[in-house]
Amino acid sequence: MFVAYRGGEKLRDEQELKAHLASILRLENVGLLLGAGASVGAGGHTVAQLWKNFLENRYADAQWLLAQGFVTEEEIVVDGDSQSEIPNVETLLDTLAISIAEWKRIGDDKHGDAVSVRSNLFREIVEAAKLDVDYWGNRGGALESRGLSDHRTVLQKFVSARQPGQPAPWVFTTNYDLAVEWAAESVDMSVINGFVGLHSRQFSPQSFDLAYRNRQALGEARFGVYNIYLAKLHGSLTWKELPDRTLIELAAPHAWPSIEHFLNADEEELGFMVLPSAAKYMQTTGFVLGEMFRRFAEFLAQSQTSLVISGYGFGDEHINRLILSALLNPTLQLVIYLPEFARVDQHGLPRSFRKLLELKNPRITVVGGQPEAYFTSLANHLPEPTLYDENLIGLRRAIKEMEDDGGHV
Known about the structure:
By secondary structure, the protein is an alpha/beta fold. It has 15 helices and 13 strands. The longest helix is centred in the first third of the chain and has 20 residues, at 110-129. The protein folds into two domains: 3-42 and 145-390, no CATH class; 47-129, no CATH class. It starts with a strand and ends in a 5-residue tail after the last helix. A hairpin with a 4-residue loop joins β6 and β7 (201-203). It is 42% helix and 13% strand. It is globular and about 85 Å long.
């Protein structure tokens, strides 16, 4: 059942929501924040499904984590009638990394077990993020896939809504998968993701300050947006750290053999996957992910900005704090798609989401109702690409007035 609130007021129907989305897409700066839920249609897993798979496939590892105090008993429930609580997987990995470093330093026997458990948890993360195997080696697989149709639709609608002189949309994601890149590529849309180069793509944050334009256009190009900006806040499956700590991005077909080997073997580490870790934060990972978060914070602070959130379960407190503090920007508009939201007095919702809801701020719009708030629904709710031409709008208005007066066109 469709349910949506803007501030403390309930929206009447989907048409009212669509009208609001059409207006915020015309603001000066527009962006998306995508979580794991946005990739389910493309073959990805939510964090809840990832953790469930880990418990089902590697319960002995879960018991070891419990015995060492990394998780609670409520977080390793496997009873089909009971719902296991979901730990913050990245915080868990972070804590494991610190413990592994310490146990290695003092020669503790738990070091080997911890490395093995962490590797198996990594495997479940990669399984959740790899999407369809056909995407990796066959370019046509991603181009023709229906699983990426919602991503294509959302990206095209965001880009097409840009007015002359407005910047390209931003896409921020906590996902490691390549759904956004593959979807953009399938419609010949350029992606600026912080990496530059042709055969050797190295991380260069200055690239976020660049854009594409049609140099043959006279004056200001009528349709001047040819790209999106992509900031992967938690890393990517195709990032690789070289021995000199330079970070590069691999093409998907080149990365896949190592990923496939890691999934099917007993390797301790996936050589090029970059994940948040306190043990690496002051090295390459800290620099790259820190830059991504800086761009996110800068975007939220800009005037006349809108951010549409989909598939994100408010499980990352760093992101939650940025969103909450960004409301000090009086021109920021938030639209949040959260399937589990059903009513304003509902219990069991994420704490940070409840804080936003309790503000009853008219600049915050929340959409719920299970399927009515899935990523597919967002793709359907966004306005169709159209020419925002004032002369055309005036002509249509004149024609309608003539028809209302009984005149002939």
